[in-house]
Amino acid sequence: MSTTPHRSRTWLHIGLFILAIVLLAVVVWFAIRGHTGAPSTAAPTASATASASASADAPDATAPVSAREVREANAVRFEQLWRTYGADSTIDPKEFAHRPAKDVLNALRVTDYTPPDWSAVSTIQRNSDYGPTGQNPACQGTTNSFSCMAYPTVGEWWVQQAWGSGSRWIEGPTVEHTGEHTATVTGVVRAILVEPGDTFHSTDTYALTPSWQDYPCRTS
User: Fold this and answer.
1) Omega before 173 cis (within 30°)?
2) CB atoms closer than 10 angstroms to residue 87
3) Is 117 helix (H, G, I), strand (E, B) or coil?
4) Spatial contact of 109 and 88, defined as CB atoms under 8 Å apart
5) Which terminal Cβ of the chain has fewer Cβ within 10 Å, N or C?
6) Torsions phi, psi of 85, nearest 5?
């Protein structure tokens, strides 16, 4: 009896078995390859989390500043320069209680009223006829008076008439856009005036009467 068919079936079985092993090896190899190449899904480290949070919260230093933001900053700076001068009007009067008179006078005394320089934030040209550099009011009509000759400018005259004065912002300034190139600045300024007596008395220091006043401000 011939054995050829039996041998053929045997070799067929062996071939199928080898093919199955090869296929299994290929599947396993692709599975291992895919696992090692996939991105890790493990939780990020604390340092990585903190770094990402800081980047999300911090402003982008390279972000360009808009023209609107520049105008807002200039408006605020201009108002601060214009309305901040002289004696500190935010001082609490209670701070002067039981203090030597000399200390109180030195804290409130203003000897210079130099106009602010706002050329960096505004193209407005200040009129030299007004403000501290303007002409002493006592010079109007005559320039021969002692006051006019001794104190020719408003600033010099004011130093002699009032012991001290000044102002500070206590609310704002806040910028509100009212047009493409216009804005309104609002807030509250507190002013202080220290007079020697009930009326102005040049160089006198008796009966000092400081007073405070708040002024709502609105500039367009």
Assistant:
1) yes
2) 22
3) coil
4) no
5) N
6) -160, 165
Q: Name the residue with tokens 């396993």.
A: 28
The one-letter amino acid at 194: V
201, two tokens: 């008395």
The model's confidence at residue 43, banded by pLDDT at 50, 70 and 90, is: very low
β-pair type (164-177, 183-196): antiparallel
User: How much is the mean pLDDT over the chain?
Assistant: 73
State pTM to two decimals.
0.62
Write the Ramachandran bin of 216: left for phi over 0, alpha for psi from -120 to 50, otherwise beta: beta
Instruction: Look at residue 191 and give its three-state secondary structure.
Output: strand
| 8 A C-beta contact, residue 115 and residue 135 | no
* 3-state secondary structure at position 166: strand
For the record, the structure tokens of 190 come out as: 């507190």
Closest among 192, 193, 202, 154 to 170, alpha carbons compared? 192
